[in-house]
Amino acid sequence: MGEGLGVVMALISSALGGSAAAVTRFLVADGDAILLANLRFGIGFLCVLPIAVALRATWPRARDWPAAAALGALFYGLAIVLYNVSLDYTTVARATLALSTLPFQTMIVGALLGREALTRRKTAGVLIAMAGIATALAGDLAHAPDGAWRGELVMLATALIMSFYNVWSRPLIQRSSAFGFLAVSMGGGALVLLLAGVAAGSFAALGDFGPAEWTAAAYLGPGGGAAAFILWILALERASPTRVAITMTVNPLAAALLAAALLAEPITPIFLAGLATVALGIWLASTMARVR
Question: Total domain count for the chain?
Answer without folding.
Answer: 1
